[in-house]
Design brief:
The chain is an alpha+beta fold. The chain folds into two domains: 141 residues, Ribosomal Protein S5, domain 2 (2-Layer Sandwich), CATH 3.30.230.10; 136 residues, 2-Layer Sandwich (Alpha-Beta Plaits). 44% of the residues lie in helices and 26% in strands. A hairpin with a 7-residue loop joins strand 7 and strand 8. It is globular, with a radius of gyration of 18 Å. The relative contact order is 0.20. Its EC number is 2.7.1.168. GO terms for molecular function: ATP binding; fucokinase activity. This is D-glycero-alpha-D-manno-heptose-7-phosphate kinase. It comes from Armatimonas rosea.
């Protein structure tokens, strides 16, 4: 028997961090994200001699695009068939929790469900996934103005999580306010796209990035700030670090017609461009 699976990476547009139980149980978390055609692939080969499981992905390690969660979704998809996407997402999260990884659930649910989704978190497995239907022309316009690059430095989300949640537990005013701001942006972003307003969407990305940086100084660094300055000088209207920040990938939305100029400027500055399109399949499992 030969099974194949794939699960997509995601770009978290806004609200990330609020999906972690520590905040979600207190106030309710909100995340708006979308999956892209960069996949973790898996295969399971069963013969008379035993079973082999293999995985692969082309994205750099520590990209901040949810690849570790996508890998686990791939694995549980191979084991259980992937028909119950919510179950697979919870199994993938449970494995990370068992390993002592402090994180939220958006990555697992994104990889399992695919597409543009507004997700609401109330703590534990209380997760609502609301698919956001967008006109094809809006998706095309967003893709034509999107730029995704890898900084060349993997993000160390565990270290950043410790700093951020330490501030939250201590009731640090700026940290708590930043969480509330992230939640508000997570709610506003899909509305901008439903209205076909990519420019407003870009501005909200910038607002999300400000809130991210207010969580803790470790979320940004001089290299990231320089890449933001480079992108903005070339025509980026707004952007953010993907995932926890501190490294990994950066996502920008540009002025109309400036995508190529922003890509060229960032590559010249040392970043690696990651071309992509949005995808809507999520987890897929098939038998050969």
């Amino acid at each position: 028997m030969h099974l194949r699976s794939h699960a997509p990476a995601r770009i978290d547009f806004g609200g990330a961090w609020t999906d972690v139980d520590l905040y979600a149980r207190d106030f309710g978390g909100v995340v708006f994200n979308a999956t892209i055609n960069q996949y973790v692939t898996g295969e399971q080969i069963v013969t008379d001699e035993g079973m082999q499981v293999r995985y692969g992905f082309s994205l750099p390690t520590g990209s901040g695009l949810g690849t570790s969660a996508a890998l686990n979704v791939c694995w549980f998809g191979l084991i259980g068939g992937g028909s119950d996407r919510r179950k697979v997402a919870e199994q993938a999260y449970g494995l990370e929790e068992l390993l002592g990884i402090l994180g939220g659930r958006q990555d697992q649910y994104a990889a399992a469900f695919g597409g543009f989704n507004l997700m609401r978190f109330a703590g534990g497995s209380q997760v609502e996934v609301e698919p956001v239907a967008l006109p094809p022309e809006t998706i095309t316009a967003l893709e034509a103005r999107s730029v995704l690059v890898y900084t060349g430095t993997p993000r160390l989300s565990g270290n950043i999580h410790e700093s951020v949640w330490g501030g939250y537990r201590a009731g640090r005013t700026e940290t708590v306010a930043a969480f509330h701001g992230l939640r508000e942006v997570g709610l506003a972003l899909p509305e901008a796209l439903k209205n076909g307003n990519v420019t407003e969407f870009a501005a909200l990305l910038g607002r999300n990035w400000t809130c991210q940086k207010n969580l803790d100084p470790s979320v940004s660094n001089p290299q990231i700030e320089q890449l933001f300055a480079t992108a903005q000088s070339a025509g980026a209207l707004g952007g953010k670090a993907c995932g926890a920040g501190g490294g990994g990938c950066l996502y920008f939305v540009t002025e109309e017609g400036q995508q190529a100029a922003v890509v060229d400027a960032l590559v010249t500055a040392g970043a690696r461009h990651i071309p992509f399109a949005f995808e809507f399949d999520g987890l897929r499992v098939a038998a050969d």
